[in-house]
Design brief:
Keywords: 4Fe-4S, Iron, Iron-sulfur, Metal-binding. InterPro entries: 4Fe4S_Fe-S-bd, 4Fe4S_Fe_S_CS, DUF362, Fe-S_Ferredoxin. This is 4Fe-4S ferredoxin-type domain-containing protein. With about 375 residues, the protein is α/β, with parallel strands linked by helices. The chain has 2 domains: about 290 residues, 3-Layer(aba) Sandwich (Rossmann fold), CATH 3.40.50; about 50 residues, Alpha-Beta Plaits. It has 14 helices and 16 strands. The protein has an 8-stranded mixed sheet with strand order 4-3-2-7-14-15-1-16, sandwiched between helices. A hairpin with a 2-residue loop joins strand 11 and strand 12. The two termini are about 25 Å apart.
Length: about 375
């Protein structure tokens, strides 16, 4: 049986505005069954890196908060620390970035909690027994939440072809150690000239793999467990990730397994909403927003993230592409926009693998909500 995906377009008028349509769609998707009274309800989103402006507009977060509070639950906005150095690499700067982008309590009526703690090290081990990982490390705030609404800006992505609900959950619910294992899980690169000799890396390494030789940090490859603690604790950028060490296909499958782990203790307690608005060629982690590749499509919701992402890919590919963007061909409706952007990436892989390990199914029934 195909999974149901609900879609609202962005047409509005005096009879029904977009917020009323959004509330109607959330009702139809089954939000009343997902969120229960007194739940500590996570609203998982991406606050956007400083320099970009294509992240979700705070008004949609406020509407989601309103819906959850009507169900007598306790919503909080959440994300996890980024692996790279930037405005979201630690909790304090992450919250500051969110506030700069308009996600203050006064605007959205809910607090912000960075789910993997002050430095991205607060995670819970979850057993999944999949092909790449037997256990995954999920941010504790997300793991301990009773329910979750996943709000995602749907767009292109250089690593996975597109970024949708699966990526938001897979990459976005992992702590720093988990993100490291997705991207590499091996020996980090070292920039010794940046070392100040503070010894934080040495003292925090659970594998006792780091030593200081002539004031230069050295990693014992045999002892390194690939946990990512060194670059989580280092304040000077000494430890870097070798982004080319693992093929993108492997990273995508690892990401999907983390999504499996993040959802494992929340069966029937997660609702996914993709905003097919401002569809940029790159992700919100970039410090800029490139021109949108297709017109706004609408907002889609489902209890099945695989069906939802598949539907959103199909909806984007069904649009007329916009010229003078990152695309230089493939503009016609039903031409593959994501393959045009990233011809070296098989965007279908994350959907195929997610279906294979039981997260959801690619077959869907698209149901239109409102006029």
């Amino acid at each position: 049986m195909a999974s149901r995906v609900y879609l609202m377009n962005m047409r509005a008028g005096f009879g029904e505005n977009s917020f009323a349509k959004f509330q109607k769609m959330m009702k139809k998707v089954g939000i009343d069954d997902v969120i229960r009274e007194r739940d500590q309800a996570a609203i998982k989103l991406h606050f956007g890196e400083q320099g970009t402006f294509s992240y979700l507009h705070p008004v949609w977060i406020r509407e989601t908060v309103k819906i959850i509070k009507k169900l007598r639950a306790n919503p909080f906005l959440t994300d996890t620390s980024s692996l790279y150095t930037g405005g979201r690499s630690y909790a304090v700067s992450h919250i500051e970035t969110a506030l700069i982008h308009g996600f203050a309590y006064a605007c959205v009526n809910a607090p912000i909690i960075i789910s993997d703690g002050l430095k991205g090290t607060d995670g819970v081990k979850v057993e999944i027994h999949q092909n790449h990982f037997k256990t995954v490390s999920i941010a504790s705030g997300i793991y301990h939440a009773d329910s979750m609404v996943v709000l995602t800006h749907f767009k292109g992505h250089m690593l996975s072809g597109f970024g949708g609900a699966l990526k938001n959950v897979g990459m976005g619910c992992a702590d720093k150690a988990g993100k490291y294992k997705m991207h590499l899980g091996a020996i980090p690169l070292i920039k010794p000239e940046l070392c100040k000799g503070c010894l934080l890396c040495l003292n925090s390494c659970p594998g006792r793999a780091i030593s200081l030789i002539k004031k230069i940090p050295v990693i014992d490859h045999a002892s390194c467990i690939g946990c990512g603690q060194c670059f989580s604790f280092c304040q000077n950028g000494v430890f870097k990730i070798d982004w080319d060490a693992v093929p993108p296909a492997t990273i995508v499958e690892r990401m999907v397994e983390f999504a499996y782990g993040a959802l494992l203790n929340k069966q029937g307690r997660v609702c996914f909403v993709n905003f097919i608005l401002n569809v940029t060629p790159g992700c919100d982690c970039l410090p800029f927003s490139d021109a949108c590749i297709v017109p706004d499509v609408g907002i889609a919701a489902s209890l099945d993230p695989v069906a939802l992402d598949q539907a959103c890919v199909d909806l984007v590919n069904g649009q007329q592409g916009i010229p003078n963007t990152a695309m230089n061909h493939g503009f016609e409706p039903h031409e593959d926009k994501f393959l045009t952007l990233y011809p070296q990436v098989n965007w279908q892989q994350q959907l195929e693998y997610a279906q294979q390990i039981g997260i959801g199914m690619r077959d869907y029934e698209l149901i239109t909500v409102g006029g």
